[in-house]
């Protein structure tokens, strides 16, 4: 497989509603798409970095810079046997996993198309249907949140995750439990607490949550291990899990009992598979996290979620929850049972809508092969 050319596009896409976490709110997404021409086939990937360095250090702009000046020159015009080799070729660049993932995943899509298999099968996935949950941001009021939960449950979603922060935590969870005693419920703090807050977090043990995601610092593992010994509720790590090596350290330290695998955060499908396999051997369940992706990133998440150890519902939900119009056809849809049926056509299984993509593009640059 020869990478003949690469096209980077930045799209402006407005979320239907602002999404608020403990680190800030976002509504205008700056989506970076990578299109790779591989032996005449177009493969698509999405860089899942945010607009600002508040979730991780990567942003849309750092990704553009690192792709243009380092990663694209490393792979352009070169022959690769598999997409996995593309990941290996980018190892001289330290960090920037979401940026590398966008490029590597585009080649995975191309490889699957060339082999005429669905991407899910190429990755080793078996499921024909995946389980879906929703992630709900911090709302203006408790009533607004309860109403949102009502709507998502009625749509069939199998699990509800709510964002928490100091002042919007135990009170919120208590109110949700009073109204919905039976639902599968979890919280995500995005690093809003410190180890000294253990007593407050311990109160959450009364509400039989599935897990508490990333309560402590974004780059911490050790203090999460200390916190886990004080909590009954399983801790799930998100932010610090940037590779299989870090995941192995987290498991060895018993810093968590569940891992959220984000395809971009771990640097693409090759590394995601390693984290998955490691957790599977250790008996640690995983689920697929989301980064408010466009349809391209969403389609990759669907494919990854078909691996066997994705046993918990992911933050992979319908395109319509995010966008008035998604950039793929068909859009990602969720059944009344709260599942997504995995496409069976080659590659991503959702077609990029070129017309709409062009219309939403605010920056574009192509890199032809010199060979
Ligand atoms: O921590 O999981 C997170 C969105 C942006 C950044 C971080 C997170 C999230 C979500 C949203 O929870 C998941 C989604 O619906 O895409
Ligand atoms: Mg999270």
In short:
Helix content is 33%, strand content 22%.
Describe the secondary-structure layout.
Layout lengths: L2 E19 L2 E15 L2 E7 L12 H16 L7 H7 L7 H18 L4 H5 L5 E3 L2 E3 L5 H13 L5 E4 L6 H10 L5 E4 L9 H5 L9 E2 L8 H7 L6 E3 L6 H9 L5 E4 L7 H14 L3 E3 L6 H10 L23 E2 L9 E3 L9 E2 L1 H7 E8 L3
Parallel strand pairs: 5-6, 6-7, 7-8, 8-9, 9-10, 10-11
Antiparallel strand pairs: 1-2, 1-15, 2-3, 4-13, 12-14
Helix pairs in contact: 1-3, 2-3, 9-10
Bound molecules: 2-succinylbenzoate and magnesium ion.
The site of magnesium ion (MG) has 7 residues, from loops.
The CATH superfamily of the largest domain turns out to be Enolase-like C-terminal domain
Question: Helical proportion?
Answer: 25-40%
Low-pLDDT segments, ≥5 res: none
Q: In order across it, which strands form the biggest sheet? A: 5-6-7-8-9-10-11
Bound molecules: 2-succinylbenzoate, magnesium ion
Total helical segments? 12
Number of domains: 2
Class derived from helix and strand content: alpha/beta
Shape: globular
C-alpha termini separation = 14 Å
> Looking at CATH, which topology of the largest domain would you report?
TIM Barrel
Strand residue content: 15-25%
Largest sheet: 7 strands, parallel
| Assigned CATH class of the largest domain | Alpha Beta
Number of strands: 15
Radius of gyration: 20 Å
H and E string: EEEHHHHEEHEHEHEHEHEHEHEEEHE
Under the CATH scheme, which architecture of the largest domain would be assigned? Answer: Alpha-Beta Barrel
Mean pLDDT: 97
């Amino acid at each position: 497989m020869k990478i003949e050319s690469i096209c980077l596009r930045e799209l402006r896409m407005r979320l239907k509603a602002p999404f608020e976490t403990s680190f800030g709110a976002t509504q205008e997404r700056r989506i970076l798409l990578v299109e790779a021409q591989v032996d005449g086939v177009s493969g698509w990937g999405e860089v899942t970095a945010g607009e600002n360095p508040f979730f991780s250090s990567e942003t849309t702009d750092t990704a553009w810079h690192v792709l243009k000046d380092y990663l694209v020159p490393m792979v352009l015009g070169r022959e690769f046997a598999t997409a996995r080799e593309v990941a290996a070729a980018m190892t001289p660049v330290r960090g920037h996993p979401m940026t590398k993932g966008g490029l590597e995943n585009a080649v995975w899509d191309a490889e699957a198309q060339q082999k005429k298999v669905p991407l899910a099968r190429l990755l080793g996935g078996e499921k024909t249907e995946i389980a879906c949950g929703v992630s709900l941001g911090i709302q203006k009021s408790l009533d607004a949140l309860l109403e949102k939960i009502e709507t998502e449950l009625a749509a069939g979603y199998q699990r509800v995750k709510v964002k928490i922060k100091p002042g919007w935590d135990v009170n919120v969870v208590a109110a949700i439990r009073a109204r919905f005693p039976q639902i599968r419920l979890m919280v995500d703090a995005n690093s809003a607490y410190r180890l000294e807050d253990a007593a407050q977090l311990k109160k959450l043990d009364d509400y039989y949550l599935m897990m508490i995601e990333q309560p402590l610092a974004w780059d911490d593992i050790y203090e999460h291990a200390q916190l886990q010994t004080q909590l009954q509720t399983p801790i799930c790590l998100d932010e610090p899990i940037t590779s299989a090596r870090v995941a192995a350290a987290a498991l060895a330290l018993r810093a968590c009992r569940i891992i959220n695998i984000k395809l971009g955060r771990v640097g693409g499908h090759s590394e995601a598979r390693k984290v998955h396999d490691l957790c599977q051997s250790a008996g640690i369940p995983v689920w697929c996290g989301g980064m408010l992706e466009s349809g391209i990133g969403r389609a990759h998440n669907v494919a990854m979620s078909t691996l066997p150890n994705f046993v918990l519902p992911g933050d992979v939900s319908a395109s319509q929850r995010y966008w008035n119009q998604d950039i793929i056809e068909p859009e990602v849809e969720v059944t009344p049972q709260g599942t997504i049926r995995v496409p069976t056509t080659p590659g991503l299984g959702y077609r990029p809508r070129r017309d709409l993509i062009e219309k939403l593009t605010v920056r574009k640059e192509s890199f032809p092969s010199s060979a």
